[in-house]
């Protein structure tokens, strides 16, 4: 079946998640994505030690996040400190459409693989360069990971309960959002290239992209000169609007009520008609003013309820409600995710099959799918340099002997 | 505002009929140069009433959410529930590359404005729907909102302090991510459409996009280690050390993921505090080696950071290649030296009202720069321009449509 990006070729010089996730999506949509690695400086996900079997040491093919960020790609190994390897990388780029890189700022230039050089090899190249701070400015070489960017962009201070000054996700949110913004940025440049024949360089600062998704909050400072209020789970225009305890340990249901009609329906579900006429709760402005008392009353009611049954009862009354699901809930107790086949079984080159969270691009005409996961460093050297670039077996051996192409299945050095 | 110059999406037209779930998608497309026509019901969209407001004046053109999310768009009003409104929408859809909508599944179909109806006369059309749960499945008609999507999508369970209830992120991030998926997916579908002439229906579910964004705490990890992730304070469970640490005048965020970064940090702690224990080789290597000693290492790090200011830890730490960053407030962000050096913030003129600074480009295209080409439209601001100027509706007809409450 045709996929939307069939025929495109992407070369990645990348590590971690924010860069690799762009290629992961493109591979899912049919692009041939070739990731360049080096054994000298292994990606952080290659340093994975299986938590149940620490005695096995680092397992460069087994990290579940390596699957999440890299399934379906080709992998080559080059020692880019060798001029021959740089030459091969340039030839690979010349045969490709897109380059994605997220090395530290300036590294690609130092290697001789900056946009100016690569463009000589491939005049209509689209190149995305992404880093924590972008490629200019006083902090351009600073080191960051996803959670650093949450803090830097104000998200950690804006989020959470009023009494907490720093609230952070466990899922390195900026990595995902910058991956998606990077993907969109590349697709915009490809649309432009389709219509004009011109490629271009794109620089993405994860700091800037993350400020962008809280831009409407930052506007409060820019327009009115004050900090936005930290609301926790509350809203300025809906009440009740929160996360309420249910029966069991760490079980919760989120409930949001927009307007008086929904409120009256909630009171009916709760069997508390007196709430409707209680002057503290009768209108939305009153409920917002008495949010604390309101939350206490609702929580007293929900504490005796079972989470999923409560969600069903409220949804039957047309009220937005949802169980606070963990991953086990999502995989075992969510009929919606199951019906839509959200979780994907992916072929794994070592483990046979693995299951991963889906890539919900929703392309109903050209559905995507994940290729194999768990590739070894340099596993596709022969295909890429032999078949694709047309090197003879003698040439391949020469490059391997000279150390430009890294071969063998020895494990990467720690770094 | 039409003169997009050399914007990447110049010449691409998007019809947006979207609530909070989809407005950011429209903004992403509009600021890249697409001609995004925002279709609002007569009287204006409900999102115009979202607080807070510019200078605290409740007014349909002063909602900061609305202003931010609708830059570079043109605005028209149209009643899609009336046949005359539907006919106009169909004519507009014939000129569009992308239709972006956020109605409940089946709503536009019932009005004769669904994908099947529109693609008949525009086979290359990309029709992007964003709904709480998607177009299919037993929950497709369930009510959703950002909070509920954060809950079902697995985000809230793993955000915040261990001893607190689950908590959502500020700024409706479930919706912003659904919009980001929708924008990327629409462009992928458009790439295919340009090449092969075939459009398609893009079916975005906010529950699913949230579940995808939270995959680090997802299926692969859980099936691998058997530990269901939950809230864990400011540090990441798998990265030791990591988290927010106190300084003299605020907090810094630290993350150590590479053995070399740990060594650099241990040496700095030793230099400043004289701590010998921190240099013990048993703390070296991958993060998993330090996992049993998280609390002890947090103490060692705090002994360093509490002696210094945020700025000192930030810049000296980074000089040593350690990932320290300040925990910024929104005000700090608007004054950040890096953002100012890159001219990140942009000024937008609001005719008759004044100038306002906005957050700027999320990415910088060298040849086709991102730009805000105008402020969010006022209610029906471009009715005459689009209906009369581009669709060929006469001024008399427009007056009649207005009188009938269609526009």
Explain what you see:
The complex is a heterodimer of chains A (415) and B (407). With 415 residues, chain A is of the alpha/beta class. Chain A contains 19 helices and eleven strands. In chain A, strand 2 (32-37), helix 2 and strand 3 (74-77) form a beta-alpha-beta unit. Chain B is α/β, with parallel strands linked by helices. Chain B folds into two domains: 13-213 and 342-403, Rossmann fold (3-Layer(aba) Sandwich), CATH 3.40.50.10540; 234-246 and 251-326, formyl-coa transferase, domain 3, CATH 3.30.1540. Chain B is 36% helix and 14% strand. Chain B contains 17 helices and twelve strands. A six-stranded parallel β-sheet of chain B has the order 3-2-1-4-5-6. In chain B, a hairpin with a 4-residue loop joins strand 7 and strand 8. Chain B is elongated and about 85 Å long. Classes of the chains: A alpha/beta (415), B alpha/beta (407). Chains A and B meet through helix 2, helix 6, helix 7, helix 8 and strand 6 of A and helix 2, helix 6, helix 7, strand 6 and helix 8 of B.
Summarize this structure briefly:
The complex is a heterodimer of chains A (415) and B (407). With 415 residues, chain A is α/β, with parallel strands linked by helices. Helix content of chain A is 40%, strand content 13%.
């Amino acid at each position: 079946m045709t996929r939307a990006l069939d025929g495109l070729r992407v070369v990645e010089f990348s590590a971690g998640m924010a860069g690799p996730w762009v290629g992961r999506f493109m591979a899912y949509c049919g692009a041939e994505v070739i990731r360049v690695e080096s054994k000298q400086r292994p990606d952080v996900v290659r340093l994975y030690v299986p938590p149940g079997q620490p005695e096995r040491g680092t397992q460069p093919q087994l990290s579940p996040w390596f699957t999440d960020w890299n399934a379906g790609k080709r992998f080559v190994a080059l020692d880019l400190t060798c001029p021959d390897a740089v030459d091969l990388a340039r030839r690979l780029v010349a045969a490709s459409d897109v380059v994605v890189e997220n090395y530290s700022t300036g590294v690609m230039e130092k290697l001789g693989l900056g946009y100016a050089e690569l463009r000589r090899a491939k005049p209509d190249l689209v190149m995305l360069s992404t880093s924590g701070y972008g490629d200019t400015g006083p902090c351009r070489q600073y080191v960051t990971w996803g959670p650093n960017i949450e803090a830097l962009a104000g998200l950690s201070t804006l989020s959470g309960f009023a009494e907490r000054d720093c609230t952070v996700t466990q899922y390195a949110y900026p990595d995902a959002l910058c991956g998606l913004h990077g993907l969109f940025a590349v697709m915009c440049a490809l649309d432009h290239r389709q219509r004009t024949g011109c490629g271009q360089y794109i620089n993405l600062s994860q700091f800037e992209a993350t400020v962008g998704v809280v831009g409407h909050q930052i506007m409060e400072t820019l327009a009115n000169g004050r900090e936005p209020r930290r609301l926790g789970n509350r809203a300025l225009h809906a009440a009740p609007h929160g996360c309420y305890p249910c029966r069991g340990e760490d079980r919760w249901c989120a409930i949001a009520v927009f307007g008086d009609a929904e409120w009256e329906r909630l009171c009916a579900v709760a069997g508390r008609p007196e709430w409707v006429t209680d002057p503290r709760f009768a209108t939305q402005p009153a409920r917002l003013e008495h949010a604390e008392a309101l939350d206490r009353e609702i929580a007293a009611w929900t504490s005796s309820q079972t989470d999923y049954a409560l969600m069903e009862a409220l949804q039957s009354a047309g009220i937005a409600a949802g169980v606070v699901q963990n991953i086990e809930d999502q995989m075992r107790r969510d009929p919606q995710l199951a019906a839509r086949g959200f979780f994907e079984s992916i072929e794994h080159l070592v483990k046979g099959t693995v299951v991963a969270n889906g890539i919900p691009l929703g392309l109903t005409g050209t559905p995507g799918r994940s290729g194999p996961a768990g590739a070894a460093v340099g596993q596709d050297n022969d295909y890429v340099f032999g078949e694709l670039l047309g090197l003879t077996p003698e040439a391949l051996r020469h490059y391997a002997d000279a150390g430009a192409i890294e071969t063998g299945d020895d494990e990467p050095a720690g770094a | 505002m039409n003169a997009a110059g050399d914007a990447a999406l110049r010449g691409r037209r998007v019809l947006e009929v979207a609530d909070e779930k989809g407005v950011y998608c429209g903004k992403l497309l509009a600021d890249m140069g697409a001609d995004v026509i925002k279709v609002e019901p007569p009287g204006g969209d409900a999102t115009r009433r979202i607080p807070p407001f510019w200078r605290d004046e409740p007014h349909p053109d002063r909602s900061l959410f609305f202003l931010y999310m609708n830059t570079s768009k043109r605005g028209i009003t149209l009643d899609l529930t009336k046949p005359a409104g539907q006919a106009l929408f169909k004519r507009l859809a014939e000129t569009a590359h992308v239709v972006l909508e956020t109605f409940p599944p089946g709503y536009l179909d019932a009005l004769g404005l669904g994908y099947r109806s529109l693609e008949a006369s525009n086979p290359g059309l990309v029709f992007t729907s964003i709904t709480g749960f998607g177009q299919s499945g037993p929950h497709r008609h369930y009510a959703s909102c950002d909070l509920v999507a954060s809950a079902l999508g697995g985000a809230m369970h793993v955000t915040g302090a261990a001893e607190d209830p689950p908590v959502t992120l500020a700024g409706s991030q479930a919706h912003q991510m659904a919009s980001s998926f929708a924008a990327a997916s629409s462009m992928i579908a458009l790439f295919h459409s340009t090449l092969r002439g075939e459009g398609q229906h893009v079916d975005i579910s906010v529950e699913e996009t949230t579940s995808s964004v939270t995959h680090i705490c997802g299926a692969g990890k859980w099936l691998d280690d058997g530990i269901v992730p939950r809230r864990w304070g400011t540090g990441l469970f798998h990265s030791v050390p990591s988290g927010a640490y106190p300084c003299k005048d605020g907090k810094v965020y630290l993350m150590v993921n590479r053995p070399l970064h740990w060594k650099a940090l241990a040496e700095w702690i030793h230099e400043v505090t004289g701590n010998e224990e921190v240099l013990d080789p048993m703390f070296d290597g991958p993060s998993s080696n330090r996992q049993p000693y998280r609390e002890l290492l947090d103490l060692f790090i705090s002994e360093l950071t509490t002696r210094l200011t945020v700025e000192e830890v930030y810049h000296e730490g980074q000089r040593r290649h350690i990932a320290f960053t300040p925990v910024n407030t929104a005000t700090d962000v608007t004054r950040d030296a890096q953002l100012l050096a890159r001219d990140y913030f942009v000024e937008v003129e609001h005719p008759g009202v004044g100038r306002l600074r906005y957050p700027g480009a999320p990415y910088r295209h060298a040849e086709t720069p991102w730009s805000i080409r105008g402020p969010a439209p006022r209610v029906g601001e471009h009715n005459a321009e689009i209906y009369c100027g581009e669709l060929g509706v006469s001024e008399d007809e427009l007056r009649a449509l207005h009188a009938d409450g269609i526009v």
